[in-house]
Structure formats: C-alpha cells, structure tokens
Amino acid sequence: MARRSALAVVASTGVIAVAVGFLAYALQGTDTAPGGRYALKARFLSSDGLDAGAEVAMAGVVVGRVRSVTLDPVAMVSDVVFELDDQLHLPTDSSLSIGSTSLASPAALLVTPGHARSTIPAGGLLTDTHPMVTLEQQVSEYIFGTGGLPPPAGGQ
C-alpha cells in the first residue's frame, strides 16, 4: 500500500512539473513583464474592432499592446491607451490606424512613424488617427463612390 502511495505522489509531482513547464513556456511570449514599456494615448472617431490586448504593430513587427479602449462621453470619441516598447520613441507627426495584417487576424493598432525630430513623451496624445475601413465600406465606395477612378470628363 505504501508503494502505491509513493508512486501516486511521484506521478502527481511529474504532472505538476510538466504543467508548470508549459505555463512558463506560454508566458515567455506574452507581455507579462511590467518594465520596458511606456504608455501613449490616441483619439479615434471610431475604434470599431479594436479591443484591449490587441497588438500594436509597426512595419509588421509587434511593438506593444493596447491597454484600454474607452468612450470619452464629453467629446464622443474613442480613447485608446496603448503601450510601446521603451526603445521606440515615436516622432510627433506619427499616425495610427486600425487594421489587420490578414483577413483572418483580429484588428490591431498600426503605427506609421513620422519624420519629425521631436518625439512624443510618455503619456502623450496622438491625434493623427484613422479608423478601420471595412470590406463593406470599400465595396460601397467602389460601387457608389469614385472607387479610386478619376472623375468623369466635364466636371463633378
């Protein structure tokens, strides 16, 4: 009986050790460490599709995470707080858009760096923002709008 109990303890310890190993491996690729990041804020007319925890990407590389997406009840705009790696210092003329890298991926905050010499300090506000353009909006613009075609000869 004692041998069976010892075997159960060894097996249980092994299962727990494997579970802790998987947890450590899973946390390795996430942004759990509080250091190494700073927060910025952005204002969007619409942040449709963007959620807290979404990726912040620049040039196809994940450089941060969205911390929160809230509505400013006075200005009636969406306030997005996001974190960037502290090695990055965005120029003041940088812009943000909401998009996705593929049809199957969730919405992300996409950073287009500017060229200004001055940079946005931690806690700073970005206002050059562009909401996500949905596939339906693109098709509608193509059918009912110009669709990127030149205006007809003779005006309009």
From TrEMBL:
Pfam family, one: MlaD
InterPro entries (alphabetical): Mce/MlaD (IPR003399), MlaD_Phospholipid_Transporter (IPR052336)
Organism domain of life: Bacteria
Domain Mce/MlaD residue range list: 38-109
Region forming the signal peptide: none
Protein name per UniProt: MlaD family protein
